[in-house]
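Example 9 (inverse folding). The structure is encoded as follows.
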């Protein structure tokens, strides 16, 4: 497996659409993939190792079938591309949905990575709602939505992409590249740890995530609260363990001139629940870990001894939500560069 650890620096707009680019158009359609997971999860959902270090008495079994919703984007039929056997599986971060990868065009800026990757490589993509989020299945008990179940669901989606035609005229793909954002990176990372060489992914790009950032405590993030308390009208029936983040500013650079204020308004309007750029307020700002890229690479590389290739990139100026600020094309260029490398 190849790995790029990309160092950090009540409306769902899910519908069929077409993105235009100078090279043609990219058609996008909603899709639902049923997946079966059979995993062991810790009885204590707060287990920081998600059961990896637990003994049998501390684990319980989750054996269930779920529906994973996503938006599939592919080049139009007039485009001939040697990349048509490659698909990107895009996984959002905490309190986001698949919409993170293709938010609406705002102030004449297109923040869609799906459109960008098509225009710069004619790559197909499937942006999914993680288990328990958005339009994917949401288990009644939030304790079922843990790293083992969520990462297994993603791996099953990847296997589906490799073995089953996704739509009429869309054959199975030969390679699946996983691209995660924040907690989405954590899910892909967990799957790689558990599955090792049996992982269905041919490469991983992990953004807004550092494995060596041991001082980050997600549960202590400002504005993190029970979803049903934050929005009773929308989430009053949810298990109180489902949470959301009401303070969205932490996901952007501290300098407000580097992103559109309308993007935060959209962010607040479309937030969901959930079980690095140099200006990333969660991983980089206020620390020295992102200044020395060589040292950061050495530290992170030690956790991936079997990776065939490995690189850490720190995008200057980008915040935690690197797709949503004015520097987005920098990360997008990096993503496509590595997808091309992994596809060879």
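The amino acid assigned to each position is listed next.
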């Amino acid at each position: 497996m190849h790995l790029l650890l990309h160092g950090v620096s009540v409306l769902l707009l899910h519908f069929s659409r077409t993105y235009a680019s100078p090279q043609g158009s990219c058609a996008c359609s909603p899709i639902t993939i049923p997946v079966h997971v059979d995993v062991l999860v810790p009885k204590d959902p707060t287990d920081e190792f998600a059961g990896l270090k637990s003994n049998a008495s501390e684990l319980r079994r989750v054996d269930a079938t779920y529906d994973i919703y996503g938006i599939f984007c592919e080049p139009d039929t007039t485009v001939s591309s040697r990349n048509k056997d490659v698909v990107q599986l895009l996984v959002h971060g905490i309190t986001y949905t698949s919409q993170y990868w293709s938010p609406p065009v705002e102030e004449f800026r297109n923040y869609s990575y799906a459109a960008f990757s098509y225009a710069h490589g004619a790559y197909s993509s499937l942006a999914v709602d993680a288990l328990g989020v958005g339009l994917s299945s949401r288990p009644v008990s939030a304790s079922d939505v843990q790293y083992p179940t969520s990462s297994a669901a993603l791996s099953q989606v990847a296997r589906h992409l490799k073995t089953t035609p996704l739509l009429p005229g869309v054959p199975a793909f030969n390679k699946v590249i996983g691209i995660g954002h924040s907690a989405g990176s954590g899910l892909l990372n967990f799957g790689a740890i558990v599955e090792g060489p049996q992982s269905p992914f041919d490469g991983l790009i992990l953004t807004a995530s550092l494995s060596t950032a041991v001082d980050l405590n997600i549960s202590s993030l400002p504005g993190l609260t029970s979803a049903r308390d934050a929005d009773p009208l929308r989430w009053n029936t949810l298990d109180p363990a489902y949470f959301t983040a009401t303070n969205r500013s932490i996901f952007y650079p501290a300098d407000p001139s580097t992103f559109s204020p309308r993007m935060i308004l959209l962010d607040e309007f479309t937030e969901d629940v959930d079980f690095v750029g140099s200006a990333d307020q969660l991983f980089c700002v206020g620390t020295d870990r992102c200044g020395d890229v060589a040292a950061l690479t050495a530290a992170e590389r030690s956790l991936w001894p079997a990776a065939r290739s490995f690189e850490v990139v720190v995008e200057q100026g980008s915040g935690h939500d690197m797709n949503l600020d004015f520097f987005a094309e920098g990360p997008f260029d990096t993503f496509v560069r590595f997808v091309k490398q992994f596809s060879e």
